[in-house]
Amino acid sequence: MKHGILLIPILFVRLLLPAQSLPVVDTAVMNFMRTYKVPGMAIAITHHGKLVYSKGYGLADSVNQVPVTANSLFRIASVSKSVTAAAILKLAKANRLNLDTTVFGPKGILGVRYGKQPYSSDLQAVTIRQLLQHTAGGWQNNGDDPMFLHPSMSADELISWTLDHQPLKNPPGKVFAYSNFGYCVLGRIIEKVSGQPYEDFVKAAILAPCGIRTMQTGGNTLADKRPGEVVYYGQNGENPYIYNISRMDAHGGWIASATDLAKLLVRLDGFPQPPDILSPASLQAFTTGSAANSGYALGVAVNMNRSWWHAGSLPGTASEIIRTQKGFNLVLLCNTRTDGPFFNDLDGLLWKAVNDPATPWPQEDLFTR
């Protein structure tokens, strides 16, 4: 969706090539940035647990000529769903919740806290697993997506409003419909079970064990920009500061660096080293699709080749994480987005390098620097 007007013009300047260079990667990234007028971009690549390449390209702030680094913070948009799913699975691993527990109603994990009663029988049948799989039966990411309505409401107020005004359209478990709202509810489940604010629990239970210290939820306006965070640039009339990002916490509100996300991926990828933060059974659930959509599991898209990934998109933001079956993990972050084949080209940007056995990846583990 496109809303508002462009607050900050894109001042596209020369790309800043970092000192280290891997031409097969750098050339692909810079060509992509030129084609789609991307002011700044960061990438990170791991191979069997080692960080083999990470870089920032272009500008984090085109007005003040601040370069992007691999540690610059970007909005990651819907890649946040993978983070939330990992947090839910961490609670399940600790036997603090069951994925097949219902969510709403007298027997639900959130009880009757939200909205007006009585709840419909379908609403009372929605489970945590179905929210993770986007099969709860409604609240789709379309023109009626509640997460982009009523920006002055708190998350709790919005949940009550949505339950009262947007009934489910399908029986739970039957139809896949991508739902930002469902992940907002998952954030409140994490708070209920953990007894902590969503962000605090995720930082303590998921991020800290991975050595991630700078990842956090983002702000809404340019004035709310966090230290080290990039500026976002809209294209085609988009306003990158129109939405309530902080309310999106569990479905689209995190900001992270490329190296942050690389540290997280190597602890969720199922490869031998370093040890994963989830059990093998939890990782199996994490990457198993639903009956309604075999291509989407619990917070990640999956395929038959045992690769998984998630992309994110907001005005001024494009992101993607990819776990490949060949032992590579890829992170791509941009401070703009646009139309056309932009996201297809972003998805394919690093595959030539990782599929070529002759690519001269550094032998040193850059995580240890």
From TrEMBL:
Q: Which SUPFAM superfamilies match?
A: beta-lactamase/transpeptidase-like (SSF56601)
Which residues does UniProt assign to the signal peptide? none
Looking up Pfam families in the UniProt record yields:
Beta-lactamase (PF00144)
Q: Cite the Beta-lactamase-related domain residue spans from the record.
A: 26-351
Gene3D superfamilies reported for this sequence: DD-peptidase/beta-lactamase superfamily
Protein name (Swiss-Prot/TrEMBL):
Beta-lactamase
